[in-house]
Specification:
This protein has two domains: 120 residues, Aspartate Aminotransferase, domain 1 (Alpha-Beta Complex); 252 residues, Type I PLP-dependent aspartate aminotransferase-like (Major domain) (Aspartate Aminotransferase, domain 2), CATH 3.40.640. It has eleven helices and 13 strands.
């Protein structure tokens, strides 16, 4: 089996991640922060250590600003709920995933917010001047760091700096779902207020864990409220971080798995990126040489991650995906990838694309087989 669907979730997981999750379930899976016995204290220590690791990874000064969520979707919803008020204006890039679009479209439909879109070229790279879209009531700008459809990378530090220089009161949320673990992310250098990430993609953790980094002192509203193990005497949600945003029992096996995933990827990020880019270049070259295929990518390796899409003029994406699966045991994702807006921007809506996404475990021979398979499938 050849797995080229790492943008959906990375597979396989490193042995160290599997072991960390298994050890947790086996040895100390008590409820962290809820009881004073040995196992609960050990569990709480593991959560603390993981929070510190995430903080160091993203260069967050105070690890209390790392909020564990179940995934990036929850982190994005959390940031929107924390900051948005009625009559606010929100600016988004035109390369967003539905994790961003659906909460915002809901609020827009309810008449609570208005939306504007930053212009992008057909390769998805932002071309518009965000500051031209800012209004006196603009509260939030959301930008997808790296696309899950064509792999284009945005200059988030540059764009954030421009926004902040123009209007420091505007908050910036970066969706780093595809970039965390692939590109170095230093939240101090980027200067954004929120960064949402997920644990199960390029951080090689298990599914069901992600996080929100809070990098602002502004007053924030709570999102999901409930038991935190702290301030149990109070019927009101604690105001301090991370408890304000971490109600209910946390995903301890997921949290330790995320820590192990970061420890796996961090020391070899550059090496993995070099390999992934080598693979993706070969995929682009092979696809570009086949008559009838359109390749969707950033058109610049500098602004690209290991994700590309393609379509064929006469063979449907579903047929290609099915044949790759049935005849070659190659796993890819076809369709709209939960990102209809992105497909509209790059010109592949409504048919969608076949998406290839490589990972740390992709080998040269996987790409050889994929290239041969696609050449064969598209032969007339
Ligand atoms: C760009 C982008 N944003 C958000 C998400 C949502 O991530 P999750 O499913 O972990 O919530 C994804 C997942 O594919 C994504 O690619």
């Amino acid at each position: 089996m050849i797995y080229l669907d790492n943008a959906a979730t990375s597979y396989p997981k490193p042995q160290s991640v599997i072991k960390a999750v298994a050890d947790c379930l086996q040895d100390y899976c008590a409820n962290p922060g809820r009881s004073g016995h040995k196992l609960a204290i050990e569990a709480a220590r593991k959560v603390f250590e993981a929070r510190e690791t995430v903080a160091q990874f993203f260069n967050v000064t105070d690890s209390r600003n790392v909020i564990f969520t179940s995934n990036a979707t929850m982190a994005i919803n959390c940031a929107c709920a924390a900051i948005l008020e009625d009559s606010d204006h929100v600016v988004v890039s035109s390369m967003e995933h539905n994790a961003v679009m659906r909460p915002l479209r809901y609020l827009e439909k309810e008449g609570k917010i208005s939306l504007s879109f930053i212009e992008s070229g057909s390769n998805g790279k932002i071309t518009g001047d965000v500051t031209q879209l800012l209004q006196p009531n603009t509260r939030l700008v959301v930008i997808n760091h790296a696309s899950n459809v064509n792999g284009v990378v945005q200059d988030i530090a540059h764009i954030t700096a421009k926004i902040k220089a123009y209007s420091p009161s505007v908050t910036v949320l970066i969706d780093a779902s595809q970039s965390a673990g692939v590109l170095p992310i230093d939240i101090q250098k980027i200067g954004c207020d929120f960064l949402a990430f997920t644990g199960h993609k390029a951080l090689y953790g298990p599914q069901g864990i992600g996080g929100l980094i809070i990098n602002t002192d502004r007053p924030l509203k709570p999102f999901v409220m409930g038991g935190t193990g702290s301030k149990s005497e109070s019927q009101y949600q604690p105001e301090f971080l991370p408890d304000k945003y971490e109600s209910g029992t946390v995903n301890l096996p997921g949290i330790v798995g995320l820590k192990a995933g970061i420890e796996y990827v961090w020391p070899q990020m550059e090496k993995i990126r070099t390999e992934e880019m080598k693979h993706i270049k070969r995929v682009i070259e092979c696809l570009s040489g086949i008559k009838g295929i359109t390749v969707y990518w950033s058109n610049s390796f500098e602004h690209q991650i290991g994700v590309v899409s393609f379509s064929h003029e006469s063979i449907s994406c579903s047929e290609i995906g099915q044949r790759l699966n049935d005849e070659y045991s190659i796993c890819v994702r076809i369709g709209l990838h939960c990102a209809p807006l992105t497909h509209e921007t790059i010109g592949s809506y409504p048919d969608g694309t076949v998406r290839i996404s490589v990972g740390a475990f992709t080998e040269d021979s996987d790409i050889d087989t994929f290239c041969r398979a696609i050449e064969h499938i598209t032969e007339v």
